[in-house]
Design brief:
With 204 residues, this protein is mainly α. The termini are far apart.
């Protein structure tokens, strides 16, 4: 019982500190998303995120093996669905990712890599409130989320060849696809004209 009360009091204290930090930040800098979040705010937000993930979810094990096929499927999914914010290499260095508050994290670093598989799965499935991370999960697609967990683990060792494969799968406008196809035709020495067929998108 004492342990339960200690946990509850710690959570309440953390929430009050976070509220105070947000209040000070808003009063000091307004509601602009441009400033870099202060370290104390980032630390409190991460602590609260961890405390909010149920213990059973934190301890969940990935039921899938990190086979080449699994990583290839997850790589394609990440390129089409996640790279707009997180970048193909997981660095978060995109105009969208760097425009959010808080900034999209570099998932190659310890702050992400030290999360358990269960924590990564829970975050992808349920999102994080008051950030740009939406809830992507559905009961029918949990296997896809577990594959993404494997790919996130793989990000620190992503190869240039894999990055090139992902670039082809990144979402593009019709005009961008035409420019890419024209560039490839030029490099092949193909003078054929005509509008290229647009490739299909990776399935949702």
């Amino acid at each position: 019982m004492k342990s339960w009360w200690t946990t509850l009091l710690a959570a309440v204290a953390g929430a009050l500190l976070a509220l105070a930090g947000v209040t000070i930040a808003v009063l000091w800098g307004g509601v602009s998303a441009r400033p870099e979040p202060p370290r104390i705010e980032t630390a409190i937000a991460r602590a609260l995120r961890r405390a909010a993930i149920p213990a059973a979810a934190r301890g969940a094990k990935n039921p899938l093996q990190a086979t080449p096929e699994t990583l290839a499927e997850a790589r394609a999914h990440f390129a089409d669905h996640c790279a707009s914010c997180h970048a193909n290499d997981g660095s978060g260095k995109t105009s969208l990712g760097q425009g959010l508050y808080p900034r999209v994290p570099d998932m190659r670093l310890a702050e992400t890599q030290e999360l358990t598989d269960g924590e990564l799965f829970y975050i992808i499935e349920n999102g994080i409130r008051l950030t740009g991370m939406p809830a992507w999960g559905t009961a029918a697609k949990q296997a896809e989320t577990w594959k993404l967990v494997h790919f996130i683990r793989h990000l620190p060792s992503l190869t240039p060849e894999e990055t090139l494969l992902m670039e082809r799968l990144n979402p593009r406008s019709p005009e961008e696809w035409r420019e890419l196809e024209e560039e490839e035709r030029f490099l092949r020495g193909d003078e054929a004209s005509g509008a290229p067929a647009l490739p299909g998108r990776h399935g949702d």
